[in-house]
Sequence to fold (285 residues):
Amino acid sequence: MKKRFLTVCGISLCMAATLAGCGEEKEAVAESRTEAATAAKTEAPAEAVTEASTEAKTEENTEAATEAKTEAATEAKKEEDAEAADQAPADPNSFYEFVSNPSAYSWEGFGAASGESFNWDSFALIDFDGDNTPELVASCLSDDRPDAGMQHYVIVDESDSGLVFSEIADGVASAGGYRGTIYYIPGESIIYDLSNNAPTGAPGTTIYTFENGKVEYKEGGYCEPDMEADDPSDWSKGTWYWGTDAISQDEYDSKVNAATENQSGQAFNEIVFMDKDSMLKSLQN
Fold:
């Protein structure tokens, strides 16, 4: 009985030991699986976060680079457009409207050239100020103009508020002593008038500038002949002025040459004008 009991007990103990060993093995396997799962869970989010961060940075850098390129291209386009605008000729549509119907416009003039009675029938494009944008010059070459002795010109330019007009004239005054010619120096913003006044032919000079689309008086001078002299046309006996200052004749000549670049201008009355239809076709091209 003791042996059987011991045997049974031995078997029982062995089974218990075996079961205990199996339990420990199961627990070890479970722990290993748990650790692996934990490590996998830990590594997976870390890798996901790293990948997401890398992708976010890549997208951010790409977006920044694209935005920088877009901004650079936009600025370059703006500069290119501004440069093109500076070099582009004046908008022909505004000039086209004027040439089509000059009498629809009004400005301060000399009277004879004002209103519908004056026939602006001749036109030219000239760059007076050297900005590569020509101004429009209009005149009347027909013989039926109100003042046949004087040749009137109107310079038309553009501004933000519309067309700007400046009217000047030369020729032979029907009343008074003026006999003169208007000149311009292309691209230099200089317009000047050289005249001789009847009855003595005493000289006079008027210097204008062309600024902001307008002809503006700048300076000038003249000779006042001595009407008490035996020969009033002997200007050497007259008094020479530049502005209100009395000067010598040599000083007068020097100032005229300095202001007119040695009288290098081109005469308005030698401008090659187009008729209305020809100018309208030119403005359309």
Summary: The CA atoms of residues 209 and 216 lie 5 Å apart. The chain has a mean pLDDT of 78. The first strand starts at residue 122 and ends at 126.
